[in-house]
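EI: anyone free to look at a 264-residue chain?
SC: sure, send it
EI:
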Amino acid sequence: MDWPWLLLAVIVLIALAVPALAGEQVADFAAGLRPPGPGNPLGTDHFGYDLAVRSAAALRISLLVAAVCAVVATVLGLLVGTAAALAGGWVDAVVMRAVDGFNALPHLVVGIVIAAMWRGAPLAIIASIALTHWPAVARVVRAELLAATGAGWIETARLAGASRWFIARHHLLPAVTGQALVAMVMLLPHAVWHESTLSFLGVGFSPDRASLGTLLGQARGDVLTGAWWTLAVPAAALVVTALTFAAAGTRLQRRIEPPAGRVW
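SC: here you go
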């Protein structure tokens, strides 16, 4: 197993296991802002929560939101890209101009507007991220399908009597599945960053619901008092997670090759 996937498995395991093993935490202001040491290896936050457990719980929420956003954006992009490539002609031109229009919108600004309308609602956060990231997937899927339909082995299969369903199932679907999977994995770090940004700016999750963005937002005031660990721990979790997803996506892209096709 490649190291990015191994590290990613460790990150997911930490996000799931640490909060479950630690149980429910209770705020203890008397224990607030303790530096890393015995009993609290990563210190405590402003409310007295163990920062290791709190960060793991926040990571779990951020990963869940990122995964849902990546799946939704990939499905939308797959549907739009497939429709444009298979329809062709003026339908393809109109759809791709619409995709270009969506892609030209500033993602963060659109995300802030959508999330601010239903502040703290998970569905609004997911919608604000997914609806701004599907155009890239649509363009990749369309390009792969156009390349596949123009290949000689597709025409050979058609002349050999293969049905449209057979060609779509055995040639076109394998041509886009790998790239769509890569696009979904590459969307994950973007989704993690956007969710964290929205929560940091106060239009994402509410402060009582731990996510990496809310922890970073709460740490702004604590850092001024010298409690650097309240910012360093969630920031390190965010950076390591995003870089690991990006590295895993790159490795996956290198492994996937265009299908050679089969002549029937």
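EI: Residues 199 and 214 are 5 Å apart (CA to CA).
SC: 👍
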